[in-house]
Amino acid sequence: MSATLFSFLFAITILTLTPGFDTALVLRTAIAQGWQRACATALGVTLGCLMWGVAVGLGLGALLMASEIAYNTLKWIGAAWLLWLGIKLLFKPRLDPLVMAEQPARSQGYLACFSRGLMGNLLNPKVGVFYVTFLPQFIPAGASVALWCSLMALAHMVLGLVWNAVLIGGSHYFAGHLRKPRVLKVMDRLTGCVFIGFAAKLAVSRR
């Protein structure tokens, strides 16, 4: 049991530290909008992982393995979502932090940041497929699949929150320089290109 848990924690730690869409989104939010909204984004991202883990434990994730239509539908919705975020950043970068501060709270609110992180994970079927193929390897024989999948996803969520806290804390020291209008414009456009790249990668992916 202890060896299995250690193997799981080691594997999930490596996965958490691997840069991806989640990392880019949290860092961009931390630099452009501050650490508080970045925390809301990170909470959304990690909660998405937990929800996928619960879904897999309940058997819903297996639908993505069995149904090509279900997988492709969610895949294209997710790719469209990432593409929209990328195009928005690419063609409408934030030019001035003072203008950002004056924008309506609705567009810059915590709920919007949280939703971006949450939807970025929930609309990515590869997360569900990964959990379906990954988590069962660490479930003890005869144990409750739903309970163990949920607990392992919760562990992944906690690790993700810790890692995102490190990223957000590190970005705090550079945020003052990176929030300069010209730098912010370039950063938003680069992030937009990254998001578009992730959208293309998701669109051509297979189960």
Number of strands: 0
Gross geometry = globular
Overall mean pLDDT: 77
Q: Helical region count? A: 12
Radius of gyration: 18 Å
Oligomer category: single chain
Give me the secondary-structure category.
Answer: mainly alpha
How helical, in percent, are the residues? over 70%
Q: Strand fraction band?
A: under 5%
The number of domains:
1
- Intertermini distance: 30 Å
Low-confidence parts: 95-107
- Biggest sheet record: none
Task: Put the structure in a nutshell.
By secondary structure, this protein is mostly helical. Helix content is 82%, strand content 0%. The protein has one domain (21-203).
Identify the notable features of this structure and list them briefly.
single chain; 207 residues; mainly alpha; 12 helices; 82% helix; 0% strand; globular
Topology at a glance:
Elements lengths: L1 H16 L3 H13 L1 H23 L4 H5 L1 H24 L5 H6 L2 H4 L1 H13 L2 H10 L10 H28 L2 H4 L2 H23 L4
Helix pairs in contact: 1-10, 2-3, 2-8, 2-10, 2-12, 3-8, 3-9, 3-10, 5-12
